[in-house]
Amino acid sequence: MSNATFYIIDPDSPQADSSGFLQYVVFLASHFAAQGAKVYLNCEDKHQAEQLAENFWQVDAKHYIAHNLVGEGPKYGTNIEIGYQEVKPSWNRQLVINLAKNKTTFANKFAEVVDFVPCDEKAKQLARERYKIYRQAGFQLQTIEIDHNP
């Protein structure tokens, strides 16, 4: 059975702003990749994918982890691949971290889905819609409140 985990973002947390959120996504992706998972970061668009890739370069050198945008890097990619709606991962990935606001059609291709419940009410409603879609698709669901200090 596939799993979907929703991380709830507290309005007072560092992850509530876009910069803190992207840093947290880098942390999560690195955490899962360090455990051996093949991670796909599903961004809203090409601009967000490139911005996220840039965030991977901003981490301290001792915490750097290899990553690539879809279509770049080695033939079979790295443990972390970054893409967006119009492109597909270059090879099999087990876990997707979804940053797209209203797309879930990709989810059935992954054993694990990570998604987020943002602070903004409109974005929160879209997260609820995704939650319902995952549930109807048979995903095992759970929610986790983000720790303020990753």
TrEMBL record:
Query: Which superkingdom heads the taxonomic lineage of this protein's source?
Result: Bacteria
Question: Which keywords accompany this UniProt record?
Answer: Nucleotidyltransferase, Transferase
Q: Which GO terms describe its molecular function?
A: DNA binding; DNA-directed DNA polymerase activity
- One GO BP annotation here? DNA replication
Q: Name one Pfam family in it.
A: DNA_pol3_chi
- For this protein, what is the EC number? 2.7.7.7
This protein's name: DNA polymerase III subunit chi
State which gene encodes it: holC
